């Protein structure tokens, strides 16, 4: 098979690496890719939102399967564009990707079908939101309705912060048109956990669990980011939790989308909060998480391309999904100043020390190749991932491996998985 992957971040590097491992695959392309993806795929200078060019490329190269990594093209309807030309593509159609594209839609869906989630209200008028907040219980969560690179969620401790948050999202448009509508949600407490699930429109099969660390600084301080590190599995995502989620969240979500005429085929990422009252949905995403993918795929024993094919063909029920009985930790190496402002273009060294067969991976996110070699080209630069027999060992291995990589302006959190490690 010839496979095209659309995207250019750490998630797409992990997908490209796993796809390239498949005995079913002869050739991998990635658009636009990055300096790390170049090692496992031929990178093509086409942007993820250039649907016409991507379709033309897929036809020209007789691509057998296109895999969409990113949220923007999915929400924009890239799958529909490929299918209209008779091309085989993995990911939800536009009318299903709305589950991520609009938080208001997903909250209303959960309310309508009785899927457990936090109490909420939707607002399109900033004054109405401000009036509502006057009587709301604090802390409270404000969410820009649309896509905001994983940063459009504000946790406000008091009314003053909440008022400022409304201004930031709805008036100052910090997240652009994503803030035309806003969800105001009760603040839930508990353990967070992420479940990535394969979906074929009817059946849903969860992968191993993972947990992200969204805040920029140690101790969950600082601004929200796209994710500063992950670990897998979560010791709190037990068999009992999984059984509850299958019965009350995963299967009902698939059935709800089908009932709405929005059959979901692709990856459904369910962000969960394990509350005292049981698991509840924090958010849905319509694709692999980043950097969750970087700890989930290295532990997957099953052929990823076979799983993609089964989803597209509606044959997921026939597949047995297996994971290694171990743990993985990913530490994101970022450019100092992320997620606000940072310098780019610094040379990176140390890649030669990473060997997948030894359980060490370096997934590229914001990198490119120029006359200086491989240089930094983004806020999140690399995802240093390592496996271990236990979470504690995987964490120690990952942090050891972060020392192999050198670049000016290198920044990371030092407590990824630490709370679990010490529990």
Automatic annotation (TrEMBL):
Cofactor(s) of this protein: Mn(2+); Mg(2+)
Catalytic reaction list: 5-phospho-beta-D-ribosylamine + glycine + ATP = N(1)-(5-phospho-beta-D-ribosyl)glycinamide + ADP + phosphate + H(+)
UniProt KW keywords: ATP-binding, Ligase, Nucleotide-binding, Purine biosynthesis
The keyword Nucleotide-binding is annotated on this UniProt entry: yes
Pfam family for this entry, one: GARS_N
EC nos: 6.3.4.13
GO terms, molecular function: phosphoribosylamine-glycine ligase activity
Gene3D superfamilies per the UniProt record, alphabetical: 3.40.50.20, ATP-grasp fold, A domain, ATP-grasp fold, B domain, Phosphoribosylglycinamide synthetase, C-terminal domain
Pathway annotation: Purine metabolism; IMP biosynthesis via de novo pathway; N(1)-(5-phospho-D-ribosyl)glycinamide from 5-phospho-alpha-D-ribose 1-diphosphate: step 2/2
InterPro entries xref list: ATP-grasp, ATP_grasp_subdomain_1, PreATP-grasp_dom_sf, PRibGlycinamid_synth_ATP-grasp, PRibGlycinamide_synth, PRibGlycinamide_synth_C-dom, PRibGlycinamide_synth_C_sf, PRibGlycinamide_synth_CS
All residue ranges annotated as the ATP-grasp domain in the record: 107-313
Entry keyword annotation includes Nucleotide-binding: yes
SMART domains, A to Z: GARS_A (SM01209), GARS_C (SM01210)
Family stated for the protein in its record: Belongs to the GARS family.
Protein name: Phosphoribosylamine--glycine ligase
Organism: Coprococcus intestinihominis
